[in-house]
Amino acid sequence: MSKEKFPEFKTDAEAERFVATADLSEYDFSDMKPMRFELRRKDKTVSLRLPEPLLDAVRQRAERDGMPYQRFIRMAVERALHEVNTPPPKGGGFGLRLKAGFSRPREPTGYTTLK
After folding, report:
1. Which residues make Cβ contacts (< 8 Å) with residue 108, sequence separation at least 6?
2. Are residues 20 and 69 in the same domain?
3. What mean pLDDT do residues 52-68 have?
């Protein structure tokens, strides 16, 4: 059975009315992209100095992921804090475990886009 293409809406109110009454199992969501909504208020500003090649790599990755680079940086910080679930190494440090897609740069000038 072929599913219907999900309609486009001009307003949030139209979308809300549709979702409230439609049987969503009848629609094809295969071309939809997941969205992340930022609901918490950002009330503090941080100034951060980065090497230009690193900032360029961050901007490229953020653009590839379809988000502003500041959000990408904030999400990377949130992810790093969430992943702090291992005890600190015996030699000291923060015990951050970097997962796939993130690596510590070997040379400060050798930044490339993160994959």
Report:
1. 51
2. no
3. 93
